[in-house]
Write a structure and sequence with these properties.
Blueprint lengths: L4 H7 L3 E4 L5 E10 L2 E12 L3 E7 L8 H16 L10 E3 L5 H4 L2 H4 L6 E4 L4 H5 L1 H18 L4 H15 L9 E2 L6 E2 L2 E5 L8 E5 L2 E5 L21 H14 L5 E4 L8 H22 L6 H9 L5 H19 L3 E3 L2 H5 L9 E3 L1
Parallel strand pairs: 4-5, 5-6, 6-7, 11-12
Antiparallel strand pairs: 1-2, 2-3, 3-4, 8-9, 9-10, 10-11, 13-14
């Protein structure tokens, strides 16, 4: 996908922030995939206990231009600082969560630095045993698509689409996990916020919060059913939002993995919760008549294309699962399922 000169100029704009105690934060834009942009963060901080820390938060996708954007961003930071800083100067790489647009760049970064890489325990296998993780989730996804009522031919195409970019990554070594170090690294503190991803953490540095994908300025972070991966799902996500509200008191600036900074974190949390309440109500209304998850996704999101088809199915599935767990739904074609030994489309209805 070609970019206009204006887009290219915007991409090269590295923004600088500073905490109240003088830590410098550089927001580096990267093209994660052709249809997706985001940020990695370089943080420079020093104290008498931890010494000088040069921390990269997330690493981009490693796909397409993402690695070059990271290098160009570090070059731009070097220009602002007046001295060279590169991957070889990093002390740590902290991964917010195990989605490939946030950790895929490690394949490029890891051979170029001695920095210690950290991730939460629940996402460790996403990085360190990646091939196994991809195989298992792909199989679960195949069953989910059948049970969601997706026609076989379209399901095969969706599985291929799911795998195409993810197959480029290979397992990398991880030096530490967050719970093992007490959820703190020098002045950086972590909070486990499962839901969008099993091992998602937000990272706090004084009054600044790095939110990964847990909280975004405009978009409600994508949800998928826990049926696909433990400690995901809407229930965990909503619980994590509540946990974050009290933990993040005093945060004045939230920097996400995508989109603009957030200055009113409690307000944004309330907006996201309200959106999911509305969507749950929509699903309940839809299920006055029996429907599959595929049919529900079409009603909720209309006509979508490409990877967004899979995202819509997972989002609809997460809300159906949330309601089914709470006894608000029943399976309408249970007799048919009882007589079948293979996965089959499930029709849900409101109780």
């Amino acid at each position: 996908m070609s970019m206009s000169d204006q887009d290219s100029r915007e991409l090269l704009q590295v923004k600088r922030f500073e905490t109240s105690f003088g830590a410098q934060i550089f927001q580096i834009p990267v093209r994660q995939f052709p249809i997706l942009r985001g940020f990695v963060y370089l943080v420079l901080t020093s104290d008498h206990e931890s010494g000088d820390m040069r921390v990269l938060i997330d690493s981009g996708s490693g796909f397409g231009d993402s690695n070059q954007d990271l290098e160009d961003g570090l070059e731009a930071v070097s220009g602002q600082l007046g001295h060279r800083i590169g991957l070889e100067d990093l002390t740590h790489v902290l991964i917010t969560h195990g989605h490939i647009d946030h950790f895929g760049g490690l394949s490029y970064v890891r051979p170029r630095t001695n920095a210690r890489v950290g991730v939460h325990e629940f996402d460790l296998r996403n990085l360190a045993n990646y091939e196994e993780r991809l195989t298992i989730v792909s199989r679960r996804l195949e069953n989910f698509l059948v049970e969601a009522g997706v026609p076989e031919e379209r399901g095969v195409k969706l599985i291929d689409l799911y795998k195409i970019t993810k197959s480029l990554f290979r397992s990398v070594e991880v030096q530490f996990t967050y719970e093992a170090i007490g959820m703190q690294l020098g002045p950086f503190r972590m909070l486990h916020v499962p839901g969008h991803c099993a091992g998602h953490v937000v990272i706090r540095l004084s009054e600044v919060l790095f939110s990964g994908d847990h909280i975004l300025k405009e978009t409600s972070p994508h949800q998928s059913p826990e049926h696909l991966a433990l400690f995901t799902g809407l229930d965990h996500y909503l619980e994590s939002l509540e946990k974050l509200k009290s933990w993040a008191k005093g945060v004045r600036l939230t920097l996400g993995g995508h989109e603009d900074p957030i200055e009113d974190l409690p307000g944004r949390i309330a907006e996201i919760k309200n959106l999911h309440e509305q969507r749950v109500a929509q699903v309940l209304k839809i299920l006055d008549q029996p429907h599959t998850i595929d049919e529900i996704s079409h009603i909720l999101f209309g006509e979508v294309h490409g990877y967004h088809v899979l995202l819509a199915l997972e989002e609809a599935g997460a809300h159906v699962e949330y309601l089914y767990q709470r006894g608000a739904l029943a399976i309408d074609n249970l007799t048919e399922l009882e007589s079948s030994r293979k996965p089959a489309a499930i029709y849900y209805r409101r109780l």
